[in-house]
Structure formats: structure tokens, C-alpha cells
Amino acid sequence: MLCADAPIGVLDAGFGGYTVVKELQKILPNENIMFYGDGKNQPYGNRSKRVILDLIHQCLAFFQEKNVKVVAVGCNTISTLIDEYQDEFPFKIISIVRAGSDTVIKLHPKKIILFSTVFTAQSGCYEQYIHTACPDIQVIPRGSKWLARLIEDGDFDLNKIEHEIQNVLDDTIAQQPDIDSLILGCTHFPLVKDIIQDIYPNLKYLINPAVAQAMQVKEYLLQVNGLRKDGDGSIHIYTTSDCDVYTNMAKLLGLHVTSPVSLVPAPVPLKE
């Protein structure tokens, strides 16, 4: 039986998943949250499917040891492959790609840019989910190889960030001025949402899938009577990377962190 006091796990290849934690803390203030960011191996989106699958398995095994009650995958690249493990672990796994796709289906734009890592853009995962319900929505994938890494480095070099955004999106937006919607298809990207909006003011909708994903976590816990109803929620952050960077970014985003960030051994990637 699911234990209501068990933590919610949030998984990301870096600290982009903080955007998921922020939404969870808004709507589930009583819950204990356990965040795991594999910053050492980030970005996953530049790796092969075989290597990513093995890294994911190691991350999920970490959560199994911690006895979490549900895992929100706060990484679009991981979410493209997470169905491979839905039945292997004793907890529900909630995909941010599915959550983001559900938001697009409700919005129902004629055209929408999927702005993501290269792997997510090439996977066709968003298109698959969206077109199952709405085959008339045109999804235009555009993958950035470096934006997640530039954000993860923590120094927020605006010149480099703006250059990478424009390098990936300028041609598409210039050639198709009727596009008014964009999926922030990497959980790092909401951290530069304002920059994207400033560069492309004609984009009316910048969809952050973390909002819908947090709501899906709540709905699942309601269904299984797994909500923690009393007490203040906590957050414990684990990273395979720089604890100071993760601490500073948590403060920058206004996360209510209740204990020091913990450094843990990184998953070991398979040799290509």
C-alpha cells in the first residue's frame, strides 16, 4: 500500500527539473519532495538512446532505494524513453512530455514549435502524443544542442544564451510568422522564458509542461489516497554535480529547501 508520508521523486538530467518542483510546491505544500539532478552527465539529449536508457535505469534505482511514492520525470529527453520502465519499478512514473502534450491539445494551436534538446526534437514523441488526439496540429521540432548546458553552467552568460536561442529559432519564426505558440520542451528552458519572450514578442503562448505535470501528480495521488494531508512539506536535493550551483539556483527560483544539497555518486554511462 502506498505510504502518504513517502516523498515525491523528481528526476532530471540537471537542475531544470526545479521548474517542476516549484509547481509541485505551489499546489502540494504538504508534500515531501526528493529531487535528483544528474548534472554530471547532463545533457542527456546529446547521447545515444542506449546510453540514455541505462542512465535512466540507474536514476530510477536511486529513487527505489529512497522509497518514493511517485516519480515526476522533469526531463523531456528522459520522458521520451520512460515508458520502457513503467512496469519495472514499484512507483508510478509521470512523464513531462505527456503533460506538455495534453496542454497543447487543450490549447489547440494550428502550428506550434517544439523547442527542446536535439534528442527530444528527433524522437517524435510530442508529435506522437499530440497527433493521437489532434492530427491537424502542426508540430515543428527545433532542437538546441547547447542551451540546456549553457543554463546548467549556472553563470547565465546572456550573450551565449541569446545567440543559441536565435541560432535555433530565428529562421523558423521569420519564415512562418503565423506561429504564435512554443513548447518549452526542456525543463531548463522555462528558466529563460523571459529572454525568449523578449526576442520573439509575437509568440503569444510559451507552454511550460511542468504546470500540467504537477497537476497530474496531484490527481494521481488523489486517486490512490496518497496525499500527505498534514505538516509542512520538505525538499531534499541530491545532485551528481556542483552542490553550490544547485543551492544557488534553488534560492534563485525561490524553492523552499529544508536541508543542504547532497552530493551523490553519478550514474556511470555506458561506453559508446
Structural commentary:
The chain has 272 residues and is an alpha/beta fold. The chain has helices at 18-27, 49-65, 76-79, 96-107, 118-123, 125-133, 147-152, 158-175, 193-199, 209-223, 243-252, and strands spanning 8-12, 33-37, 70-73, 92-95, 111-117, 138-144, 181-185, 205-207, 235-239, 262-263. Helix content is 42%, strand content 17%. Helix 3 (76-79) links the parallel strand 3 (70-73) and strand 4. Helix 4 packs across helix 6. The protein is globular, with a radius of gyration of 18 Å. The termini are far apart.
The number of helical runs is 11
Strand order of the largest sheet: 4-3-1-2-9-10
The total domain count is 2
SS strand fraction? 15-25%
- CATH top level class name of the largest domain: Alpha Beta
What is the alpha-carbon Rg in Å?
18 Å
Instruction: List the quaternary state of the chains.
Output: single chain
Write the H/E string, N to C: EHEHEHEHEHHEHHEHEHEHE
Keywords, separated by commas or semicolons:
alpha/beta; six-stranded parallel beta sheet; 272 residues; Rossmann fold; 17% strand; four-stranded parallel beta sheet
